[in-house]
Write a structure and sequence with these properties.
Pfam families: DUF868 (PF05910)
Radius of gyration: 19 Å
Largest sheet: 8 strands, mixed
Structural class: mainly beta
Low-confidence stretches: 1-22
Distance between the termini: 35 Å
Mean pLDDT: 78
InterPro entries: DUF868_pln
């Protein structure tokens, strides 16, 4: 299932944070708008990665009030049986099922799987939210059908703890996937410095990071805005 064009925020933070009381985590957070129980809800999907393993958080929130529901899935590297499962909860008195199968999921540096997986949210026999590239397998297992009005991705944010290089992919513009790379250099005439490339082309360079440890910049990719927010 192709995800629509969305504004993307990339946040890079240092790995050695003295204020952190737990191991540094990398996050990928996506906010979807989904019609659920005849109401448009915000569904926030967050992938988290630590040295222990991966976690997935799904929060269903009604923007018209303070009601929200959260489902957490732990995917520890040594627990193979936890990589396929089902969780059920209720939203506005209606049953919601979340199915997942990440036994063959391929991960890169990102907390979000790259391929060979699915996470499916089902309500009233409709596949209201589909994550991953195994839609046929998800439909077969959940015995559900595609909804008349699919979910729309409205925001994607990545929080990354890294020292030198970070790569990711996201959909921008006309449903086209783009490669984004953030690199830092600790030596050179503008020591240290950072630059951000989109599809191999340099989009922004930040010299003298000692003096510019915070900042933001907006660039255009296929006529879509991408907000680059940095903290070094």
């Amino acid at each position: 299932m192709l995800e629509p064009s969305v504004p993307t925020t990339l946040v890079q933070q240092p790995a050695d944070d003295p204020t952190a009381s737990k191991p540094a985590e990398n996050f990928v957070t996506c906010i979807h708008k989904v019609k659920l129980v005849d109401i448009v809800w915000n569904i926030t999907v967050t992938w988290a990665k630590t040295v222990i393993g991966h976690s997935l958080y799904i929060t269903v929130e009604n923007p018209q009030d303070d009601n929200y529901y959260t489902c957490k899935i732990d995917l520890k590297t040594w627990q193979f049986w936890g990589k396929k499962g089902l969780k059920t909860f209720r939203v506005a008195e209606k049953r919601i099922d979340v199915f997942w199968d990440l036994r063959s999921a391929k991960f890169t540096d990102s907390p979000e799987p790259d391929s060979d997986y699915y996470v499916a949210m089902v309500s009233r026999e409709e596949l209201v939210l589909m994550l991953g590239d195994q839609q046929k397998e998800a439909l077969r297992r959940t015995k559900s059908r595609l909804p008349s009005e699919g979910a729309s991705l409205v925001q994607k944010k990545e929080i990354v703890f890294a020292k030198k290089c970070f790569c990711t992919k996201t959909t921008l513009g006309q449903d086209k996937e783009h490669s984004i790379m953030i690199e830092c250099s600790l030596s050179g005439p503008y020591d240290p410095e950072m630059w951000i490339n989109v599809d191999g082309m340099e989009s922004i360079r930040v010299p003298n990071l000692h003096w510019r440890f915070r900042g933001n910049e907006t660039i255009l990719v296929d006529n879509s805005r991408a907000n680059l927010v940095g903290c070094a």
